């Protein structure tokens, strides 16, 4: 399974992917790492392992769609089977999303469809939720709105804060992502139409 990873920051999900590959828990190869931030830790992680890594500067392009076109031209060059958005903090334009439909996933720190967008831990606390977690979903034109492939769930305790929830969700999202990538590699997920997903063993 050839993976391209898009990340803007810390890169702990990329680290989890690289660890799983190195420890033989995931049969995949990271063929490219891409970032819109020059100092993203994800780029450093890739450089350390001689994985092709590219920073693409959004300010070098006239608008969002020009940036997305340039970014995805580079992504496509490395011929990934699957594109993983792991903390890529930009909204993608519909054209590139559609061109990669069914081949691009995102990990989001909430139990979708609850709490789309930013500050999901704050949103969960403000809503008085008793449960929270992380979701892996297919990327569609609707922000955090594509079909959910899998979720990991945690309980919210009465003394939880945004920070404590963020830490606990992060601990479950890494194994969740690896489990999804393994299932993808085994052919469990297929994307049939924008909002239609079936999950079965494809031989
Ligand atoms: C994670 O919380 C992920 O769910 C969200 O962005 C964060 C990325 O973390 N989409 P990292 O950069 O992988 O450490």
From TrEMBL:
The keyword tRNA-binding does not apply. Pathway: Purine metabolism; IMP biosynthesis via de novo pathway; N(2)-formyl-N(1)-(5-phospho-D-ribosyl)glycinamide from N(1)-(5-phospho-D-ribosyl)glycinamide (10-formyl THF route): step 1/1. The active site is at residue 108. It catalyses: N(1)-(5-phospho-beta-D-ribosyl)glycinamide + (6R)-10-formyltetrahydrofolate = N(2)-formyl-N(1)-(5-phospho-beta-D-ribosyl)glycinamide + (6S)-5,6,7,8-tetrahydrofolate + H(+). N(1)-(5-phospho-beta-D-ribosyl)glycinamide binds at residues 11-13. GO terms for molecular function: phosphoribosylglycinamide formyltransferase activity. It comes from the Bacteria. Gene3D superfamilies: Formyl transferase, N-terminal domain. InterPro entries: Formyl_transf_N (IPR002376), Formyl_transf_N_sf (IPR036477), GART (IPR004607), GART_AS (IPR001555). Belongs to the GART family. Catalyzes the transfer of a formyl group from 10-formyltetrahydrofolate to 5-phospho-ribosyl-glycinamide (GAR), producing 5-phospho-ribosyl-N-formylglycinamide (FGAR) and tetrahydrofolate. This is Phosphoribosylglycinamide formyltransferase. It comes from Aquilutibacter rugosus. The lineage of its organism: Bacteria, Pseudomonadati, Pseudomonadota, Gammaproteobacteria, Lysobacterales.
